[in-house]
Amino acid sequence: MKCSKCRREAIIYQRYSGLHLCEQHFNRDFEAKAKRAIREHRWIQSGDTVAVALSGDGDSSALLYFLSRLLRERRDIRLMAITVDEGIRGYREPRRARAIADSLGVPWVTASFAKEYGITLDEIVGRKGAELACSYCGVLRQALMNRIACEHGVTKFAYGFNLDDGARSVLTSVLRGDADRLIHPVQEVEGMVPRIKPFMCIPGSEVALYASLNVEGFDLAECPYAVGALQGDARRILDEYTSRHPATKYSLVNLGEALREPGCGDGEGLRRCERCGELSGGRICRVCQVIEEVRGFRSKGPDED
Ligand SMILES: [Zn+2]
Ligand SMILES: [Zn+2]
Questions:
Q1: Which residue among 61, 106, 221, 299 sits deepest, i.e. has the most Cβ atoms within 10 Å of its Cβ?
Q2: Which keywords describe this protein according to UniProt (predicted)?
Q3: Closest by Cα among 57, 111, 101, 55 to 79
Q4: pLDDT(236) > 60
């Protein structure tokens, strides 16, 4: 099959657009979509320091590659990569993420659960079982990312979330009947560095293709603890339904954006955590709650040594 825009051989057929695209036109189309998302949300401005949350998987590696190209000529915008080592044996060595950042000439920093919290995710699972691994991990990773970001003057956090991730999270909230999650998505936590998602309108399969065409050495492994049953079912339902109705994922992401309450995340009703001094919705912040739960004793406070 030939490319719809030139005479070269096509490497992909986009059902939702009806286009066959060659490698060059696919890359161009992909980058135009990501740029449009950034422009429409006014996500990156002069003076910004943008950090990519680089796990080393295809999505985050593709994002670092894309942003390093986009910002190459911009002397007024800094780009860096941050990798968190959760401490999962045999899964995603931070050195792979580092190699990708190095190959693109992007400054890279790392931090680990072991150093920051004195416990690895494997140890947490050993004590608490795998059921809550993802929610514990999410809370701890986000807090650690945020702390490193603040140390480095980061103003925007870039995540490799794609269209499938966004659609799945909206569908999962709907299937759970979780109206609160739809109106106040977790991304909008007060006191956190704002998140941007340049690939939010690009299907996961295209992000994977863009990564495989442009980045070497990214990690294909799935997290051994990412086994949420509802998430897996939602993915299957979504993929099956989308094969017959190509616009479904876009509709869900648009629904999520429409339901999101504007102005949430303005920091109202916040106070300082009594343990660590970070901003918190309650007396004790979620990180300190998780640490207490998984370690069985309280974490170090700001005035203790
Ligand atoms: Zn072409
Ligand atoms: Zn706290």
A1: 61
A2: ATP-binding, Metal-binding, Nucleotide-binding, Transferase, Zinc
A3: 101
A4: yes
